[in-house]
Every structure is written in C-alpha cells, then in structure tokens.
Amino acid sequence: QKSIRNNGGGVYNHIFYFNGMSDSDTRCKAGKLHDALVKEFGCVEAFYHEFEEKAMSVFGSGYAWLTVDQNGKLKIITTANQDTPIVQNLCPVLTIDVWEHAYYLKHYNERIAYIYNWFQVVDWECANMHYLECLKCRN
Ligand SMILES: [Fe+2]
What we know:
Blueprint: H1 2-19, H2 31-41, H3 44-57, E1 62-68, E2 74-80, E3 91-97, H4 104-107, H5 111-120, H6 124-138
Antiparallel strand pairs: 1-2, 1-3
The structure holds fe (ii) ion.
Fe (ii) ion (FE2) is lined by residues 14, 97, 99, 101-102.
C-alpha cells in the first residue's frame, strides 16, 4: 500500500503538475472554470490568495490542489508527500508541487516566490478541461 501510494502517486502527481503548466498565456481560456472560481471565491485574485495560503501551509513535502468535491463544488486542499486527492474522492483540477526540490534551485527557501511564479504559467485551458471532466463524473 505505502509503496504504491508513494511511487504511483509520485508519477500521477508529477504528470498532473507538469501538464498543468504552459509557456503561453492561457488566462482567457479558463472558460467555465473561470466562472466557477468567481462564484466560489469572489474573484480570481481571491482564489489565488486562498490557494497560496494553502500551498504555504504544507509542512514538509506535498502538494496543494484545486479539486471538485462530490457535490461539484470547487475545494482547495493539500496532500502530504505523494498522496493524491483521488483517495479522498476529490477530482483534481490543478496542482502545485511544493516539495522543496520543485523550487529550491531557483528560489532557495522562498516558496512564496515560487508559488507566485507558478501561477503565471498555469495552463488554464488544461485546468478547465479537467474541471469539465470532473463535473461529468459528478453528474
Ligand atoms: Fe516533485
């Protein structure tokens, strides 16, 4: 169980994380996810601040996630080590790896600077696609 969680989760989480970034500006491609973020958090900036706070709160190694819960509602969570939201019956939309190896070479111990820079390269088109898929699973 532990080995599968650590290794299988590590593969899944990293694929999800790397596929969730883009070198082109995708902010106008968030589609229905944009509307859902505004509905849930008030505005995209408010979502960012809550997401940043959660990502900063991860003690040691783990991830912060934007997920869809069983009721189709957006929910920000964190997971430790290589755990995934799937085991909590949450559908992943977006994630940031906050293991120190993800940012130390560029940002040293400044996780907050890394989170800010990651937010500039989020692939919103991809996140929206995940969001729509999550909604299909919930209905
Ligand atoms: Fe990583």
